[in-house]
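Hi support team,

I've been running sequence recovery on a batch of backbones for a student project. Most finish fine, but this one hangs at about 90% for roughly twenty minutes before it completes. I'm not sure whether the input is malformed or the queue is just slow. I've pasted the C-alpha cells below so you can try to reproduce it. Let me know if you need the job ID as well.

Thanks,
M.K.
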C-alpha cells in the first residue's frame, strides 16, 4: 500500500489540489450568496 501511494503521489496531489479548488469555489459562492441575502 505504501509503495502504491508513493508511486501515485503525483496524481493524489493533483486530486487534492482539485478538491481544494472546488471547495474554495463552493465556499466563495456560498459567501457571496449569503452576503447577497443579507445586504441585497
Amino acid at each position: 500500500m505504501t509503495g502504491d501511494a508513493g508511486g501515485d503521489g503525483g496524481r493524489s496531489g493533483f486530486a487534492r489540489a482539485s478538491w481544494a479548488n472546488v471547495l474554495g469555489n463552493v465556499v466563495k459562492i456560498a459567501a457571496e450568496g449569503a452576503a447577497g441575502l443579507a445586504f441585497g
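--
Follow-up from support: It reproduced on our side and the slowdown came from queue contention, not your input. Residues 12-39 form one domain. No action needed from you.
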